[in-house]
Automatic annotation (TrEMBL):
Name of this chain's protein: ABC transporter ATP-binding protein
Keywords noted in UniProt: ATP-binding, Nucleotide-binding, Transport
Bilayer-spanning residue ranges: none
Superkingdom of source: Bacteria
Source organism: Microbacterium bovistercoris
GO CC, one annotated term: ATP-binding cassette (ABC) transporter complex, substrate-binding subunit-containing
PANTHER family: MALTODEXTRIN IMPORT ATP-BINDING PROTEIN MSMX, OSMOPROTECTIVE COMPOUNDS UPTAKE ATP-BINDING PROTEIN GGTA
Domain (ABC transporter) ranges: 4-242
Length: 377
């Protein structure tokens, strides 16, 4: 399978509107499952459509393997049908008057694949996706999840070099979405197809992707593995967009009369030295530990007195709402809390779990040697 390379790609729809995609540099590797993640209007679907050839970039170059398929400066444009790509839309776009078998082999018929080979490839892909028993049915006789499998089978039957998926699971209920996530994961492993998947659902991206590209306002914010995106966000946008419950943000620029911001700054200065451009601190709720007394706090950890103001069960875990000097902080635990609302407690956070951002929101490095041991707050 080929690599996909986007070099300085831009898209503007005219009319004085800002660029939908701004100077995008992105490399999608052979056999990679890449998720383009971001809020509505961030440019992820536009990027996917430019890769497919359905949209023309207004600047930059797109390569699939060694072949340039779009180069604005050189007036190069390869139409969608000659890019060897498979595209699955949010709408399944199945032919209602054709049986499931005929929907799946539709692309092979267009390519004039010999009948014996066409029948074999159709049977193979339908069997792998578990829809062989529906071959004589029509789309209206299938559930949403089954129709999704048919749409995927139609694309996989033609054996595309790259599979492009534009929010294909958004029309499914929660159970079917979970089943189809597992199905897509299996398809990627079995077919070793390069997949580019557009979604605004962070959990889809985290559970499916080998690599995630986070976008905002047409600009690429960060590219990395799911673990890197979650644990080492490149900036505050990524930190706040990825994670549920959202990351706790402590604004250090605000004067809170000796409260959480001041305590955080004192601790960070003791640990890392002076950081003059520091603007905020982000702490994932899972990193916030809650104990009944200061005796349960490890040496060197950031700690603060807190009052428990809420305990919210979510099924397999609990969200604990804390009041720290008038500021809300959230903790998540998989163990049943031994607290009650109104109890006084201590929260603590390991220094390695502090995400530091400068005044412009960019991540700051904290790999210098620790100093001090952190004083009780």
């Amino acid at each position: 399978m080929p690599n996909i390379t986007l070099d300085g790609v831009q898209k503007n729809y005219g009319g004085g509107a800002p660029n939908a995609v701004v100077g995008l540099d992105l490399e999608i590797g052979d056999g990679e499952f890449m998720c383009l993640l971001g809020p509505s209007g961030c440019g992820k679907t536009t990027t996917l459509r430019m890769i497919s050839g359905l949209e023309h970039p207004t600047g930059g170059t797109i390569r699939i393997g060694d072949r340039v398929v779009d180069a604005v400066a050189d007036a190069i444009y390869v139409p969608p049908e000659k890019r060897d790509l498979g595209l699955v839309f949010q709408s399944y776009a199945l032919w209602p008057h054709l049986t499931i078998e005929n929907n799946v082999d539709f692309g092979l018929r267009l390519r004039k694949v010999p009948k014996a080979e066409r029948e074999q490839r159709t049977a193979d892909v339908m069997d792998k996706l578990g829809i062989s028993k529906y071959r004589k049915r029509y789309p209206s006789e299938l559930s949403g999840g089954q129709q999704q499998r048919v749409a995927l089978a139609r694309m996989l039957a033609v054996n595309p070099d790259v599979l492009l998926l534009d929010e294909p699971l958004s029309n499914l209920d929660a159970r079917l979405r979970l089943e189809m996530r597992a199905e897509l994961k299996r398809i990627h492993e079995e077919f070793n197809t390069t997949i580019v998947f557009v979604t605004h659902d962070q959990w889809e991206a985290m559970t499916l992707a080998t690599t995630i590209a986070v976008m905002s306002d047409g600009e690429l914010q960060q590219v990395g593995t799911p673990d890197e995106i979650y644990a080492q966000p490149a900036n505050r946008f990524v930190a706040e967009f990825v994670g549920n419950p959202p990351i706790n943000i402590i604004e250090l620029a605000r004067d809170d009369n000796g409260g959480l911001a001041l305590w955080s700054m004192q601790y960070i200065t003791a640990k890392f030295g002076e950081m003059h451009s520091l603007g905020s601190v982000g702490i994932r709720p899972e990193a916030v530990q809650v104990v009944p007394s200061v005796d349960g706090v490890p040496d060197g950890a950031f700690k603060a007195r807190a009052v428990i103001t809420g305990i919210l069960p979510t099924g397999g875990s609990w969200i604990i709402e804390l009041d720290v000097a008038g500021r809300k902080v959230f903790s998540v635990t998989s163990l049943s809390p031994k607290f009650s609302v109104g109890d006084e407690s201590y929260l603590w956070v390991d220094a390695a779990d502090l995400n530091l951002f400068d005044v412009d929101g960019a991540r700051m490095r904290t790999d210098r040697a620790f100093v001090g041991s952190g004083e009780e707050i």
